[in-house]
Each structure stands twice: as structure tokens, then as C-alpha cells.
Amino acid sequence: MSRPSQPEPPSSTPRASRIWWIARPAGRSRTLPRKLKADQLAITLVDLSDPQTAAQAGYRGGEQVYPASVIKLFYLVAAHRWMEDGKLKDSEELRRAMHDMIVDSLNEATGLVVDYLTGTTSGPELSPTEWTTGISSATR
User: Fold this and answer.
1) Dist CA 134 CA 12 (whole Å)
2) Are residues 75 and 132 in the same domain?
3) 79 vs 119: CA distance, rounded Å
4) Does residue 129 share a domain with residue 93?
5) What is the dihedral of CA 12, 45, 17, 37, to 10 degrees?
């Protein structure tokens, strides 16, 4: 079994090179959990400390990888931000759902967090007629 090729640091900017040196060790097999292989990992870091000249680099950052539950991180960030902004009321149920969504990757908990964010509730599957009616009324 061959090891994945080690990408070279980008030469575009000194900042991109520094970011690459941060990302690279995370992708080295001796630092990964035993079940995770280096060729199953891709890391991209973006430095936004100067928004006018954002820099990025990564370890296998150009590889296409199935993102699995990455979307759950965006839901978590959105929920926390909305709580900070007063758009979403903090509750024990919401906190438990966020925990279960991230720690246990429970899709049911993710559904509840999405319900909180969208102000909706999950329910039975809609018939095609109900779906069309709902879409029509929502876009008016």
C-alpha cells in the first residue's frame, strides 16, 4: 500500500505557506486515529485575519471528499449566533439537540435544530398535492 503523495507548500504568499505548515501535520498518518487513514482526510484552512487579502492552504485541499455531517457544524454555528443575537431562544432541549447532533451525529437531533432555526416542525411526508400547495403559498 502506497502512502498518499505529500503536497508541497504553496509558494503564493508567506501567509499561505504558514497555513500549509499548520494543516500538514494533521494529515500525517502518525497523528491520526487508527481507523482514519491519511488518504481519507483533506484539510483546508482559510486565514481571514485580513479580509482584504484572505489566504488559504491545506493538506490534500484539492481532493474531493464526501462531506458527511459537515453541514451540522453550520447548523451549530447558526444556532449559537442566533442565540447571541436574540433570534433564537436558548433552552435545555435545544442545547441537548445541539450536543447530540455534534457528539453522537444523530440525524434526529439535527432535524430538531433545523426546526428551531426555521421555525417549523417536522411531520409526516406530504402528498404531491400538499407539497405543491405549500410551495405555492410560501412563494406568494
Assistant:
1) 50
2) yes
3) 12
4) yes
5) -120
Residue 78 neighbours by CB under 8 Å, 6+ apart: 117
* Closest C-alpha to 29, from 43, 19, 20, 40: 40
Q: How many domains does the chain have?
A: 2
Residue 62 cell numbers, joined: 484539492
What angle, rounded to 10 degrees, do the helices at 92-103 and 71-84 form? Answer: 160
Let me know if residue 9 belongs to a domain.
Answer: no
Q: For 2-51, what is each residue's pLDDT tens digit?
A: 444 445 555 566 666 666 666 565 555 455 556 667 677 777 778 788 87
Q: CB burial class (10 A; 0-12, 13-18, 19+) of residue 9?
A: middle
Strand runs labelled E in the chain? 43-47, 55-59
The domain containing residue 118 runs over which residues?
71-138
**pLDDT > 90? residue 52:** no
